Amino acid sequence: MRLTLRVWRQPDAHAPGAMVTYPLDGISEDMSFLEMLDTLNEELILKGDEPVAFDHDCREGICGACGVVINGDAHGPERTTTCQLHMRHFADGDTIDVEPWRAGAFPVVKDLVVDRSALDRIIGAGGYITAPTGAAPEAHATPVPKPVADSAFEHAECIGCGACVAACPNGSAMLFTSAKINHLNVLPQGAPERETRVLDMVATMDEEGFGGCTLAGECATACPKGIPLPSIAAMNKEWLRAARKAAR
Known about the structure:
By secondary structure, the chain is of the alpha+beta class. It has eight helices and seven strands, in the order E-E-H-E-E-E-E-E-H-H-H-H-H-H-H. It has a five-stranded mixed β-sheet with strand order 2-1-5-3-4. The protein has a two-stranded antiparallel ribbon with strand order 6-7. The N and C termini lie far apart (about 65 Å).
């Protein structure tokens, strides 16, 4: 395959960036998108040019580190992570635009790499449960109804890649935050911090500079793990309940 790549190049958060065009030949349709970027970087290094910086780790769709915007879509044209997107989804002669996540709370570090530590700080504000030290409790000591367990597992699938933020026209982190809150709040083990969790995590989300949610729905469309849009409504219900209780 012959491709024309237009890649965002930016040396750091304070320098201006621009799209740079690179012709690329000999790309196999069986390559992953990241392997294609590896091929580009090999050519750039051989020419003595600076390779394109991009995030990656497991390359198995598990960690979510690999996210980039491809032709305007977070993670690209398929509902998967960038590392699991294969070049067979593109055609010979295509022009492909590759950009970093676009959000005020995700400053560019270099090229396609952004700082997503704001998501870690949201989790740090309440994404945990009280657990006594000592031996692990017996597995069936706390019964959990299957619908509750299913809901918890559904929200626990969030890998924190930030695609929901990048896809949202407002740069909102509501889907991510709701997944982390609902995962724990529906379980009996999460009950001790139920109110403080939602209040603290939502407050931290706002402090980090994420945009407000207007239910555009792009977040759920882009999510590679299928976190459902009603998750946001469930979080809002939790927040209202906790805020009313705290105001008494």
